[in-house]
Structures are given as structure tokens and as C-alpha cells.
Amino acid sequence: MQRDYIVEIFEELGKILAAVVFLKKTQPDKALDQINAAFKGTKFGDRNTFDSLSSEAFPDFLEQWQMGYETAEVIIDLLLEEVEIRLAMGDVKPLPALLEKARLLMDYAVQKETALKVFSLKHDQQSARLKDLSGKII
């Protein structure tokens, strides 16, 4: 039962990610709304909780709530999409915090996958994208 719920949440996050990718160039505000809505289906509960966590408190939150690595990977993708959208809009103020949380989520996902002996092909792509986007805001 618990696993079915996790799969359902993961599938919903994937649908939101697909919508964000589709909307980001033509309707960036709507894409950002979709990203914000995605947090309701995660351990964060809502976007305000996510935003309120400091970089120091963020890893403890992930451990305490035992977020699945699959969910973490989708949230990473959503955050990277948000960074791209905000860069295009000229809204760079929140980007350092978003990039730092994406990095922390990557570390968490790798740690969980290593413990479970799972191999993901996404990390190299996500790391390269994070590095590229980080270079654009400095």
C-alpha cells in the first residue's frame, strides 16, 4: 500500500515536470506555479516549508522525513527548471539558494542510492546542468 502511494506521487511529479518543460518558454509564470504546486505532493508539504529551510537544516529535514531518492531526483529536475525560468526572467535573487538546495538534494539522492545499491544515470546530467547554471549566476 505504501509503495503504491509513493509510485503514484512519483508519477504525478513526473507529469508536473513534463508540463513545466512544455510551459517554460511560452508561459513561464504558469510553469513556476506548477513547480510550486508540486511541493504539495512531497514531504515538504508546500513550497513555503521548502523555502523556509536553511541550507544547514535542509539535510536534517531530508533524513528525518526519509524522502525517497526517486522523489529527490524529480525535485532536483524541477529546481533546475525553475532556475532556468528565473534566469530568463531576470529574477536572480532566489537562485543561489535554489542551486544550493538542488546540490544538497543530489548529495542526498546519491547517498540513498548507494545505500540501496541502485545506480542512476541522471546524476551526471543533473550535475553538469547544475554546474552550468551556477556559472551563469556568478
State the helix count.
7
Enumerate the spans where pLDDT stays under 50 for 5 or more consecutive residues: none
SSE sequence, one letter per element: HHHHHHH
Work out the radius of gyration. Answer: 14 Å
Beta-strand share of residues: under 5%
Helix content: over 70%
**Which oligomeric state applies?**
single chain
pLDDT average, as an integer? 89
Instruction: Kindly state the number of beta strands.
Output: 0
Shape: globular
The profile of the biggest β sheet is:
none
Observed structural traits:
138 residues, mainly alpha
Overview of this protein structure:
The radius of gyration is 14 Å and the shape is globular. The mean pLDDT is 89. Helices cover 77% and strands 0% of the residues. It has 138 residues and is mainly alpha-helical. The chain starts with a helix and ends with a helix.
In short:
The chain is an all-alpha fold and about 140 residues long. Helices cover about 75% and strands about 0% of the residues.
How do the strands and helices of this protein lay out in sequence?
Elements: H1 2-23, H2 28-38, H3 47-52, H4 58-65, H5 69-89, H6 95-116, H7 122-137
Helix pairs in contact: 1-2, 1-5, 2-5, 4-6, 5-6, 5-7, 6-7
